[in-house]
Design brief:
This protein is of the alpha+beta class and 306 residues long. The chain has one domain (3-303): Glutamine Phosphoribosylpyrophosphate, subunit 1, domain 1 (4-Layer Sandwich). Helix content is 37%, strand content 22%. It has helices at residues 18-37, 42-54, 99-109, 117-126, 137-151, 157-167, 228-234, 236-245, 250-265; strands spanning 3-7, 75-81, 86-93, 114-116, 176-181, 187-193, 214-216, 220-226, 269-275, 280-284, 291-295, 301-303. Helix 1 runs antiparallel to helix 2 (42-54). The longest helix has 20 residues, at 18-37.
Length: 306
C-alpha cells in the first residue's frame, strides 16, 4: 500500500485561481505517484511533490514566495523520515531554487538538523546548489501593495505589522507540504514556505521546526499550514502523529487537532496527514486550502475546500 497527500497552503484564495491551483496540485501529486509506483521511498515522493510546488509561482514556496519587510525572500523548508526520526531543515534561506532539497541535504550530509540564514546559504553552495533568484515581478508588486497597506495602519512599525496582518489576512499566504506512505511502509513528510508577507527579517515560522510544521513517525506523517506562530505554540504535527500512534486514523487525528487549534487560537490553520495504513487526513479552518491525495487503487482527488 502506498499513499500521498499534498497541500498548497491554507488561506484566502481567489476564485479565478481555483482551476490553476487544482491542476497544479494534480500535476505535483502525479509526479509523486510515479515515483511511488516505481518503488521509490516516501521521502523521494514528498520531496518531488514539494519541489513541483516550489517551482510554481502560484504557491508561496520557492519561486514567487512572499517578501519580507526589507523586500527579500527568506525561505523555510523541512523534511523528516518516520523510520528513524531523521530530519533536516533550513530557515531564512535565500537565493536557491528548491529549499526542500537543501533541507534534505542537511539531513543526509551533515550531523545537524537545522541551518539558518547565511550559514544555510553557504552550506547550499558547498553542497552544489546553484545561485538562483526566486523573486518574481508579481512578488515585487505584492510587496509594494503590502507596504502601502502598512502605511494605512496608524501605529508603530512593529505593532502596525500585527494590526495589518489582522486587517488583511490575505497577506498571510500559505505554505506547501506533502506526507506519504511508500510500499515498504515507510513514512515521510516535507514542507516549504516563503513565510508571511512583510515578516520581520530573520523571522522563522513553524515550517522548519520538527513537530510544529512538519513531522513523521512510524505511525504517521503530517504537514501544517497557516499562522506559523500558532503551529509553533501547539506543536501541531507532533500532536497529529501522537494521536495516530494512539490508534486514531489520519482523518480522526486531523479532526481532533483542528478542533483544538480552533478552540485555542482561531481559524488560521490547515493540516494534512497520512497514517501507517494509508489513511488520508485533510482539514482546514480557513476559506480554502488547495489539496490533493491518492491511495493505491483509488482515484486522485483534488480540492480547494474539504
Amino acid at each position: 500500500m502506498y499513499a500521498i497527500v499534498l497541500h498548497g497552503g491554507a488561506g484566502r484564495h481567489q476564485a479565478d485561481e481555483a482551476p490553476q491551483l487544482l491542476e497544479s496540485m494534480r500535476a505535483a501529486t502525479e509526479r509523486a505517484i510515479r515515483l511511488l509506483v516505481a518503488g521509490a521511498s516516501a521521502l523521494d515522493a514528498v520531496v518531488a511533490a514539494v519541489m513541483a510546488l516550489e517551482d510554481n509561482p502560484l504557491f508561496n514556496a520557492g519561486t514567487g514566495g512572499s517578501l519580507n519587510i526589507d523586500g527579500h525572500l527568506e525561505m523555510d523548508a523541512a523534511v523528516m523520515v518516520g523510520a528513524d526520526l531523521r530530519c533536516g531543515a533550513v530557515a531564512a534561506l535565500q537565493r536557491v531554487r528548491n529549499p526542500v532539497q537543501v533541507a534534505r541535504a542537511v539531513m543526509e550530509q551533515t550531523n545537524h538538523v537545522l541551518l539558518a540564514g547565511e550559514g544555510a546559504q553557504r552550506f547550499a553552495r558547498a553542497a552544489g546548489f546553484d545561485d538562483y533568484d526566486p523573486v518574481t515581478d508579481d512578488a515585487r508588486i505584492a510587496y509594494s501593495k503590502a507596504l502601502r497597506q502598512l502605511g494605512n495602519v496608524n501605529s508603530s512599525r512593529f505593532t502596525g505589522l500585527r494590526k495589518m496582518l489582522d486587517a488583511y489576512p490575505q497577506l498571510r499566504p500559505g505554505t506547501v507540504g506533502a506526507a506519504a506512505l511508500d510500499s515498504s511502509s515507510g513514512l515521510a513528510a516535507a514542507t516549504s514556505t516563503g513565510g508571511m508577507s512583510l515578516k520581520m527579517a530573520g523571522r522563522v515560522g513553524d515550517t522548519p521546526i520538527a513537530g510544529a510544521g512538519n513531522y513523521a513517525t512510524t505511525f504517521g506523517a503530517a504537514s501544517a499550514t497557516g499562522h506559523g506562530e500558532i503551529m509553533l505554540r501547539c506543536l501541531a504535527t507532533k500532536t497529529l502523529c501522537d494521536l495516530m500512534e494512539a490508534g486514531q486514523s489520519a482523518q480522526q487525528s486531523i479532526d481532533a487537532g483542528m478542533a483544538r487549534i480552533v478552540a485555542d487560537f482561531g481559524k488560521d490553520a490547515g493540516l494534512i496527514a497520512v497514517d501507517k495504513n494509508g489513511g488520508i487526513g485533510v482539514g482546514h479552518a480557513t476559506d480554502g486550502m488547495p489539496h490533493a491525495y491518492y491511495r493505491e487503487g483509488g482515484e486522485l482527488v483534488t480540492g480547494v475546500r474539504f
